[in-house]
Amino acid sequence: MKDLILGNHLLFARAGDVIDGVTVGAEARPDTDPAANFTKLPTVEDWEPKIDRNIIKRRAPSPGKYRDRKSIVLNQTMTHAFSLQEWTEMTFAELLLGGNKPVGGVFVPGEREELVTGWWIVQGYAQNNQQIVALNIYGEATIGSYKFGERLDPYALVITELYSSISTGQVLNLD
């Protein structure tokens, strides 16, 4: 058992990009050599993983009072909410303002018809700088609304995992 305070890092490789001869997609993940194959996102303030399950309960009398006898998971969705501290061209122009990938900084707000999709690497390090978790997930990202003003509040980037047979997760250094 270990008490954890995790500092997290988030990296991204966009679906459709060709990296080291590999067209990035649900069944094609680039490697991390060189490190430039993935784009590091801004400072992550916190990370909230959440799994939502659609469950039906099978019930039966036991002996006369009905009780749950089995739960059946119909489907589930895994989301990861990150609070980021700084903006990038992708998070600002594409995710917040709904544009397509800017070319030379130029884009049309609201023209994006699909979510930003690709491979996300989530790395979590404990307070002693030991890596605790490493995830390689394929997913799509969204950002809700954000209010600009005098404060510098973090914004929420939410990744919804999509199915890929090559998604991986590893837990380390928990002893």
Helical content stands at under 10%
Number of DSSP-assigned strands: 10
Shape: globular
Let me know the largest β-sheet.
8 strands, antiparallel
Domain module tally: 1
How big is the Rg? 20 Å
> What fraction of the residues are assigned to beta strands by DSSP?
over 45%
The low-confidence parts are: none
Through-space gap between termini: 7 Å
Q: Which sequence of SSEs, written as H and E, runs from N to C?
A: EEEEEEHEEEE
Q: Indicate the structural class.
A: mainly beta
Mean pLDDT: 96
Number of helices: 1
Summarize the structure.
The chain is mainly β and 175 residues long. It contains one helix and ten strands; from the N terminus they run ββββββαββββ. The chain has one helix at residues 89-96; strands at residues 7-14, 18-19, 22-23, 39-40, 44-61, 66-84, 116-125, 131-143, 155-161, 168-171.
Can you lay out the helices and strands and say which pair or pack?
Elements: E1 7-14, E2 18-19, E3 22-23, E4 39-40, E5 44-61, E6 66-84, H1 89-96, E7 116-125, E8 131-143, E9 155-161, E10 168-171
Antiparallel strand pairs: 1-4, 1-7, 2-3, 5-6, 6-9, 7-8, 8-9, 8-10
Describe this protein's structure.
The protein is mainly beta and about 180 residues long. It has one domain (about 5-170). It has 1 helix and 10 strands, in the order E-E-E-E-E-E-H-E-E-E-E. Strands 1, 4, 5, 6, 7, 8, 9 and 10 form an 8-stranded antiparallel β-sheet that branches. A two-stranded antiparallel sheet has the order 2-3. Strand 2 and strand 3 (about 20-25) form a beta hairpin. The longest helix has 8 residues, at about 90-95. The termini are close together. The model has no long low-confidence stretch (mean pLDDT about 95).
